[in-house]
């Protein structure tokens, strides 16, 4: 791995951590707050690609596991892996991977609509597909109830996917060799 790769992996880990400083918005009927960190996951996958994006999110998970308070609300430590948000958090590396693979495929012809769709698939569908069953199991509620409660997050996630897509396209124009 080149030094440039290591720097980019660490930088996007730090960006995702910094997005945890944006105050989480609690939802009265859900133990899962609205956070900005999935925006970091989307940007990481889209701008670093599958391999480096996944490594960046694995680094982020490792830092959280050893106690760094990098998640929204200053959470960190092994307890995070056993709480109601565990599945959503555990999905970060896979989400970055899926976004990275799909963005890699369309990098040179990537448009706003395709970038939004890629972020929605990786950053929302993948994260929810893992997070909702975990939430249901940990909270001891039916998966359907956990899924229904997650509908409140959809507008914000769509907004984050649009922001990530716009940033990705802007960065690609300014730094087309970022993924080399």
TrEMBL record:
Localisation per UniProt entry: Cell membrane
Membrane topology: Multi-pass membrane protein
Keywords, in A-Z order: Cell membrane, Membrane, Transmembrane, Transmembrane helix, Transport
The organism's place on the tree of life at top rank: Bacteria
Keyword Cell membrane (UniProt): yes
Bilayer-crossing regions: 34-50, 55-72, 78-100, 112-139, 151-171
Keyword Cytoplasm: no
InterPro entries, sorted: BioY
Family: Belongs to the BioY family.
Protein name per its UniProtKB record: Biotin transporter
Organism encoding this protein: Daeguia caeni
């Amino acid at each position: 791995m080149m030094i440039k790769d290591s720097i980019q992996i660490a930088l996007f880990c730090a960006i995702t951590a910094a997005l945890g400083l944006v105050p989480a918005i609690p939802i009265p009927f859900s133990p899962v707050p609205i956070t900005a960190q999935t925006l970091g996951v989307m940007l990481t996958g889209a701008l670093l690609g599958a391999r480096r994006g996944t490594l960046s999110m694995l680094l982020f998970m490792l830092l959280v596991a050893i106690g760094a308070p990098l998640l929204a609300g200053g959470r960190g430590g092994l307890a995070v892996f056993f709480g109601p948000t565990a599945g959503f958090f555990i999905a970060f590396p896979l989400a970055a991977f899926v976004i990275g693979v799909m963005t890699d495929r369309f990098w040179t012809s990537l448009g706003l609509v395709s970038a939004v769709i890629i972020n929605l698939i990786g950053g929302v569908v993948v994260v929810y597909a893992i997070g909702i069953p975990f939430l249901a199991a940990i909270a001891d509620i039916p998966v359907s109830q956990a899924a229904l409660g997650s509908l409140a997050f959809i507008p914000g996630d769509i907004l984050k996917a649009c922001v990530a897509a716009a940033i990705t396209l802007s960065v690609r124009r300014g730094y087309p060799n970022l993924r080399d």
